[in-house]
Automatic annotation (TrEMBL):
Record-annotated ABC transporter domain positions: 2-232
Entries under InterPro entries matching the protein: AAA+_ATPase, ABC_transporter-like_ATP-bd, P-loop_NTPase
Organism: Pelagicoccus enzymogenes
One example GO MF annotation: ATP hydrolysis activity
Name of this chain's protein: ATP-binding cassette domain-containing protein
Domain of life from the UniProt record: Bacteria
Gene3D superfamilies given in the database record: P-loop containing nucleotide triphosphate hydrolases
A Pfam cross-reference name: ABC_tran
Family: Belongs to the ABC transporter superfamily.
Keywords of the record: ATP-binding, Nucleotide-binding, Transport
Length: 242
């Protein structure tokens, strides 16, 4: 569903992403991990067509992000690290606005999509409230709802549980898992237990390069008896010292 091939991004003299390659298929939840500044957001922004790669390619459902950005955007939903906010809009107004911008203008289709995402993201009780008055957990669910309003095949979530309390984290993780059957999902996170809880693949990126691409169980088995956290620290510290 998503193929990333030797992707590179330079910001001036800084090579933020340095030859990253991986593929993800329908049903995959890929945990994208790495220390601060590793290049996770930059990679995700290139897959969504938000940033142009310096070199390499990314394709979504067979469409090249650089050559067919419109076809890619139809197939991809994106939750950025800090969601664009329209604080004064109600949840329904905001989701309607996003749906219309996505080309969903037929009234019946629009209402069906709104009803679907409101149920999936458990937003019914707040749908007529202004976004600025919602808790962070609800705002994050609105962010997920806008990302899936056009029922995309691929979902890119940048730190979807960041800043949420444990109950809210649990809710958002359940939501991601429930959606994974018919989608390919990439999520970046700093939380290693999140990877263990919901991902079937883990990629660790450090200084723009992929260090690890395997299952969470394989990752943990690298150091029997250690926590996933300890394995991560050992791996990423090594590259800093190297
Ligand atoms: N617009 C930009 N201009 C210049 N440098 C940038 C820009 N965006 C990111 N960088 C740099 O590129 C590198 C990779 O950043 P990126 O945000 O992709 O990392 P990240 O892994 O998502 O980090 P974090 O976990 O902190 O969000 C960092 O060194 C960052 O400072």
């Amino acid at each position: 569903m998503v193929t990333v091939d030797r992707l590179v991004k330079d910001y001036g003299t800084l090579r933020a992403v340095d030859g990253v390659s991986f593929t993800i298929n329908k049903g995959d939840i890929l945990g994208f991990l790495g220390p601060n500044g590793a290049g996770k957001s930059t990679t995700m922004k290139m897959i969504t067509g938000f940033l142009t790669p310096t070199a390499g390619t990314a394709t979504v459902d067979g469409f090249d992000v650089a050559k067919d950005p419109i076809e890619v955007k139809k197939r991809i939903g994106y939750l950025p690290e800090s969601s664009a906010a329209y604080p004064e809009m109600t949840v329904v107004e905001f989701l309607t606005y996003v749906a219309e911008a996505r080309g969903i203008t037929d009234k019946d289709q629009l209402n069906a999509r709104l009803a679907d995402v409101i149920v999936k993201c458990h937003l019914d009780s707040v749908k007529y409230r202004a976004i600025e008055n919602l808790s962070k957990g609800y705002r994050q669910r609105v962010g997920v709802a806008q990302a899936i309003i056009h029922d995309p095949k691929v979902l890119i979530l940048d730190e979807p549980t960041d800043g949420l309390d444990p109950n809210q984290k649990h809710e958002v993780r359940k939501l991601i898992q429930a959606m994974s059957k018919d989608k390919a999902i990439v999520l970046s996170t700093h939380i290693l237990e999140e990877v263990e809880a919901i991902c079937n693949r883990v990629i660790i990126i450090d200084q723009g390069k992929v260090l690890v691409d395997e299952t969470p169980a394989e990752f943990k088995a690298r150091k029997p008896g250690a926590t996933i956290d300890e394995v991560f620290r050992e791996l990423t510290n090594k590259t800093i010292l190297a």
